[in-house]
Design goal:
The protein has about 525 residues and is mostly beta strands. The protein folds into 2 domains: about 1-25 and about 280-515, no CATH class; about 30-235, no CATH class. About 10% of the residues lie in helices and about 30% in strands. It has 7 helices and 32 strands. The chain has helices at about 10-15, 15-20, 95-105, 320-325, 410-425, 470-480, 485-490, and strands spanning about 85-90, 110-115, 115-120, 125, 130-135, 150-155, 165, 170-180, 185-190, 195-205, 215-220, 225-230, 230-235, 240-245, 245-250, 255, 260-265, 270-275, 275-280, 280-285, 295-300, 305, 330-335, 340-345, 345-350, 355-360, 380-385, 390, 430-435, 450-455, 465-470, 490-495. Strand 1, helix 3 (about 95-105) and strand 2 (about 110-115) form a beta-alpha-beta unit. The longest helix is centred in the C-terminal third of the chain and has 15 residues, at about 410-425. Keywords: Signal. This is Right-handed parallel beta-helix repeat-containing protein.
């Protein structure tokens, strides 16, 4: 039975469509932490095999060779080979000595933390290259204290607005520990090359709290990043985030109870493989924001489970990025201002608002001039969605029925449209939603001008239409004139096998992760 719980809409409700075209956006990277002076030359030519077989303090022992140059190996120029390497060991109760040593670290140092609980009143700040921080294990969800085989770093009483781990340094590795109740970001790594986060858990004790830290794992403005076998819970923005970065792998990790589970933002060349994103507001997102200099492109999203992401949005409008705070609960995946994105082998289902949405950046900032930093990157194009499974149970309770025109106008607009659509026999939002905005001013006779390919996906047997073009601009205009029927009439609904969407991806095809089957 459908779970439609929307109030019958009036044209006034649909005015939210107009607001959806002019939402205010701000960068997810709004931190004011001073730059340590460690810089990354994004134009440096790198030798992906330069450190193979070395015994660097930041080595990637135990990683699997996937054929990806930045997959936990050394793709950057910094190496500890031939340099003095030091190991420091600490146990619970030695937090002060640990902090003192961290403040005076030499490069190429390995820090080993014995099992147990470590309590800190400020961030652990690292500003050297070649640092490895390793504990005894990440423990299980909900464990705020370390055990016989786990290391938990507790920041419950730390200074306000401080991170847990705060790192700027090339060839940084953190593994086998948990960060609990960080005031801001649990593990923040900025302006760094060759970053590995493996077997790490980030968590806040209480669910659904605006006051929780924004991000769990947060590599930003970096290059060659691997996040593997990690877990993230209860972040008030994103559990696992990669932003303004070139070359990243996020693999075999779990994100639950966050606003956004996994977020890839303004990033070039990312591979998101084998992760689980469940019980978030939105499961897995790929988008660009205006004002950031990197134009995101070439993203492969493969073999992820993105189901049951119906947690009410608890992001703070003031403290969070406005983009995430405005996402309606029940959003499986959205792509915004994204290009050359391939989604394959994934599973979606029971996402109350929509399984997959493709949106223009103009829905959050309608002024093209504000997108000039990355060369005008507002448009979405070349999205290849193939060989996935859509289980059903999605699209029948937008934003869990908790509609807000002011905080989440696009969700309110979608709910209003489909409440009217129900009277016309359409009982739920289709599996794939396109807002119909890009390219600007395109001929509406073109059914799929931005090359969204929807091919060979498994759908519920009851599926009639799988794809919708909202024609958002036209619908907004008609709604503003009080013409609700006309607004719905502008939407176009297609079967999964619609010829214009039955395309073969884009050219050249992605090569990211082709060595992994």
């Amino acid at each position: 039975m459908p779970r439609l719980q929307w109030t019958r809409a009036s044209s006034a409700t649909l005015l939210a469509l107009v607001g959806a075209l002019s939402l205010t956006a701000c960068s997810d990277d709004d931190d004011t932490t001073p730059d340590s002076g460690v810089k990354v030359d994004a134009g440096t030519t790198t030798d992906a095999g330069s450190d193979a077989g070395t015994t660097d303090a930041g080595s990637d022992a135990g990683s699997v060779d996937t054929g990806i140059a930045w997959d936990g190996g050394s793709a950057g120029t910094f190496s500890c080979e031939g340099k003095t390497q030091t190991t420091l060991n600490f146990a619970p109760g030695q937090e002060e000595a640990f902090q003192d040593q961290v403040n005076t670290l030499a490069e190429c140092t390995t820090i080993t933390l014995a099992p147990g609980t470590y309590t800190f009143d400020n961030a652990i700040t690292i500003r050297k290259n070649g640092i490895t921080l390793v504990g005894a294990g990440k423990g299980a969800k909900g464990e705020g204290t370390g055990g016989a085989s786990s290391t938990v770093l507790v920041f419950t009483n730390a200074a306000a607005n401080s991170n847990g781990l705060d790192v700027v340094g090339d060839r940084f590795t953190v593994s086998n520990l948990a960060v609990w109740n960080a005031k801001k970001d649990a593990i923040r790594v900025e302006s760094s090359t060759d970053v590995v986060m493996r077997g790490v858990r980030t968590e806040w004790e209480k669910a659904d709290q605006e006051s929780n830290g924004k991000y769990g794992l947060y590599p930003v403005k970096s290059k060659y990043v691997l996040i593997e076998d990690c877990e993230a819970y209860n972040a008030a923005d994103a559990g696992i985030y990669v932003g303004q970065t070139e070359y990243a792998v996020v693999r075999n990790s779990i994100a639950k109870q966050n606003v956004a589970g996994i977020e890839i933002e303004n990033t070039k060349f990312a591979y998101v493989l084998g992760n689980t994103a469940q019980d978030n507001t939105t499961g897995l997102v790929v988008f660009d924001l205006p004002g950031n200099p990197i134009k995101g492109t070439d993203i492969r999203v493969k073999n992820n489970v993105i189901t049951g992401n119906n947690r009410n949005n608890f992001a703070s409008v003031q403290a969070s990025s406005s983009t995430v705070s405005q996402v309606p609960a029940g959003t499986g995946t959205f792509m915004l201002a994204s290009r050359r994105v391939e989604l394959t082998g994934n599973t979606w289902g029971n996402n109350n608002t929509v399984d997959v949405a493709v949106l223009s950046g103009l829905t959050i900032d309608s002024n093209p001039a504000n997108w000039s930093a990355a060369g005008g990157n507002w448009a979405s194009a070349d999205v290849y969605i193939h060989d996935n499974t859509f289980q059903g149970g999605s699209g029948d309770n937008v934003d869990n029925g908790n509609l807000s025109q002011t905080r989440r106008p696009l969700g309110a607009a979608l709910a209003a449209l489909y409440a009217y659509g129900e009277t016309q026999g359409t009982l739920g939002v289709e599996h794939l939603v396109w807002d119909g905005l890009d390219p600007v001013g395109h001929d509406r006779a073109q059914i799929n001008p931005i090359n969204i390919c929807f091919v060979n996906n498994t759908l519920p047997a009851s599926t009639t239409t799988a794809i919708v073009d909202l024609d958002l601009q036209a619908a907004a205009t008609l709604a503003g004139q009080g013409n609700l029927a006309g607004a719905w009439g502008k939407t176009r609904h297609y079967a999964a096998n619609k010829a214009e969407f039955n395309c073969a991806g884009f050219s050249p095809a992605l090569t990211i992760g082709d060595a992994i089957q």
